[in-house]
């Protein structure tokens, strides 16, 4: 081998080495993910049965099921979406349809990005101070939902804006050319085509809100309740908080470990199912789009 | 029409012509009126949308004002210096201590430890995704990484508690594995998706001409990545790391469950010099709010002290996010003008 050939050969070896190294790191990422999933599924699935899903916790949470926690999570996440989606969509309509580029829009975008970086526990503290203490709503379902909806607002706005951006400009021009007003154009041409995208974005926000723990600890999640919440002012049980309690606050953690694993599995399954639904839905919309 | 006829009865001009003129005028007026009415409606609608667009600014300001207002009593009573350099956090004891330094240091050390692990890991993964992996594999891997992002943090905390902790206890021969390192590992895993996806975007936005020029000069693909793509994408990657930092420092549940929450200073003396350590139980800023916030008496000094902690967190994350934001937008502009 000549020197030049040798040099080239070494270069190729080095390239292979580093690329394989990068691949190994990627593999490690996948391995960690699969390991967590495998651990939760393998230790959780045997506890899950119909009774577990539909019964309330019994004998100091060492037996029975997690029905109140499932219902609580369902309530708080749905309320969150009911509050945050209309607000988020109107914000997105302003940003994408009405606003012209300028300082105001820059500041709005900056605050959206900063809001999405605020730690969830700070939202919890804010919700505790504003809704629970100052506005007198107490630690309750509505306080937690308001807190979570403020937290999920940036996600909903971003997703809705994406959906609006995906509607071709020619739709708007066509509407205006036919003499429609701006609002008529938005209402009858832009929104109908953006709503599926907004809906999938909202489902993703719902999934994230359902998995959040830190804000609801401060604003209304309860350790244990014998009855389901019957009004917005009631406290509630929630799956993430229930898992936290089972894992850290219970007197005999080893005894409730299987129930904790099963709760984790149900929570993961719920969050993933919502995400999967959103992804499949989005895929089907894209396929149906004619533009 | 009727009105027009009444007025025009006595005129010598052709009634028809006058009526036509008046009719046209009326139609014009009506249309104008209609359009001004719809103009008004459109105007109000636009203002309504603008108001809701400004909602996020209002909320952000509200959070800041609220944190400041609620921290104020505690800051006044205890003093900001005590919060920042005091070493004893005992807010509910008869002789309360409000020193948040152990909490601040724990947050910083755990987060830094997490980034030391996550950054090489994530950047290498991003290089693999963006530069090495065939398209088909990339299409599979990207959603898989997104799955990691949607894991509820409480589940990861649970895994740290029941799986990672015992492993660490055995490896390092400790009585409990609920130490800073455990939290750092979990945080590293949690920040991976953020850093990977933004770094990959940064690598992708490096102009193709750069890579082509490098290849035409005889560089291998690795040399192109190492000496062209990575440096060109570096400010984007740094922004990604900062976003990861912001996310990690604000993470609550996973850390809370992983690190044992002891209130000692996270320092270990080696030859008389206190050095940062992750090998002991510690408690972060976020965990403190979560642990104490649910049963603190509203309005007490302790309650206001928790808002001080919230304020510290808000300031840290706000600053980090702002800087990374500026870096990312500048990075995007540079690449666009290319």
Task: Give a summary of the structure in a few sentences.
Chain A is built from 11 helices and 2 strands; from the N terminus they run H-H-E-E-H-H-H-H-H-H-H-H-H. Chain A is mainly α and 291 residues long.
Written account of the structure:
The complex is a heterodimer of chains A (291) and B (338). Chain A is an all-alpha fold and 291 residues long. Chain A has 11 helices and 2 strands. Chain A has a single domain, classed as MetI-like fold. In chain A, strands 1-2 form a two-stranded antiparallel ribbon. In chain A, helix 6 crosses helix 8 and helix 10 packs antiparallel against helix 11. The termini of chain A are far apart. With 338 residues, chain B is mainly alpha-helical. Chain B folds into 2 domains: 38 residues, no CATH class; 282 residues, Orthogonal Bundle (MetI-like fold). Chain B is built from 13 helices and 4 strands. In chain B, strand 3 and strand 4 form a beta hairpin. The longest helix of chain B has 39 residues. The interface between A and B is large, with 83 and 86 residues.
């Amino acid at each position: 081998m000549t020197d030049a050939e040798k040099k080239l050969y070494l270069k190729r070896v080095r390239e292979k080495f580093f690329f394989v190294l990068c691949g190994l790191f990627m593999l490690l990422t996948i391995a960690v993910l699969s390991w967590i999933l495998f651990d939760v599924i393998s230790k959780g699935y045997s506890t899950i049965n119909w009774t577990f899903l539909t019964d309330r916790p019994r004998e100091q949470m060492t037996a029975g099921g997690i029905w109140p926690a499932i219902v609580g999570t369902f309530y708080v996440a749905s309320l969150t979406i009911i509050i945050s989606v209309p607000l988020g969509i109107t914000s997105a309509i302003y940003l994408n349809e009405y606003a012209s580029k300028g300082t105001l829009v820059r500041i709005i975008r900056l605050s959206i990005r900063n809001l999405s970086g605020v730690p969830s526990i700070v939202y919890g503290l804010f919700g505790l101070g504003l809704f629970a203490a100052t506005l007198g709503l107490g630690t309750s379902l509505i306080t937690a939902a308001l807190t979570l909806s403020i937290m999920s607002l940036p996600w909903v706005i971003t997703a809705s804006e994406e959906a609006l951006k995906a509607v071709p400009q020619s739709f708007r021009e066509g509407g205006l050319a036919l003499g429609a007003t701006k609002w008529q154009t938005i209402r009858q041409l832009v929104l109908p085509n953006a709503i599926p995208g907004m809906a999938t974005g909202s489902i993703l926000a719902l999934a994230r809100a359902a998995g959040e723990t830190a804000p609801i600890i401060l604003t209304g999640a309860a350790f244990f309740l014998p009855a389901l919440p019957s009004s917005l002012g009631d406290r509630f049980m929630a799956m993430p908080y229930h898992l936290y309690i089972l894992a850290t606050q219970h007197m005999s953690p080893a005894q409730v470990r299987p129930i904790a694993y099963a709760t984790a599995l149900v929570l993961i399954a719920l969050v993933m199912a919502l995400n999967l639904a959103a992804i499949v839905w989005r895929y089907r919309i894209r396929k149906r789009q004619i533009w | 029409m009727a009105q027009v006829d009444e007025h025009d009865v006595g005129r010598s001009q052709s009634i028809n012509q006058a009526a036509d003129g008046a009719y046209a005028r009326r139609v014009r007026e009506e249309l104008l009126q209609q359009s001004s009415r719809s103009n008004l409606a459109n105007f109000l609608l636009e203002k309504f949308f603008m108001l809701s667009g400004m909602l996020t600014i209002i909320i952000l300001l509200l959070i800041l004002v609220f944190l400041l207002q609620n921290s104020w009593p505690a800051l006044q009573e205890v003093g900001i210096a005590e919060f920042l350099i005091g070493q004893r956090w005992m807010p509910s004891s008869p002789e309360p201590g409000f020193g948040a330094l152990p909490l601040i240091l724990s947050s910083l050390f755990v987060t830094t430890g997490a980034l030391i692990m996550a950054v090489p890991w994530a950047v290498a993964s991003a290089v693999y995704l963006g530069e090495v992996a065939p398209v088909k594999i990339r299409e599979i891997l990207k959603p898989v990484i997104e799955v990691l992002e949607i894991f509820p943090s409480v589940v990861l905390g649970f895994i740290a508690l029941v799986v990672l902790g015992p492993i660490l206890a055995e490896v390092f021969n400790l009585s409990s594995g609920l130490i800073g390192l455990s939290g750092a590992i979990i945080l590293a895993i949690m920040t991976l998706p953020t850093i990977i996806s933004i770094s990959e975007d940064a690598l992708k936005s490096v102009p193709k001409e750069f890579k082509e020029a490098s290849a035409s000069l005889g560089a291998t693909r690795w040399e192109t990545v190492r000496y062209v793509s990575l440096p060109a994408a570096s400010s984007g990657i740094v922004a990604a790391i900062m976003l990861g930092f912001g996310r990690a420092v604000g993470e609550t549940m996973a850390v809370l469950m992983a690190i044992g929450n002891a209130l000692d200073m996270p320092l270990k003396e080696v030859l008389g010099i206190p050095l940062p350590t992750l090998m002991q139980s510690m408690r972060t800023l976020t965990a403190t709010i979560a642990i104490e916030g649910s049963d603190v008496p509203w309005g007490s000094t302790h309650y206001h002290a928790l808002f001080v902690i919230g304020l510290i967190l808000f300031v840290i994350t706000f600053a980090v996010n702002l800087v990374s934001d500026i870096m990312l937008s500048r990075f995007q502009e540079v690449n666009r003008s290319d």
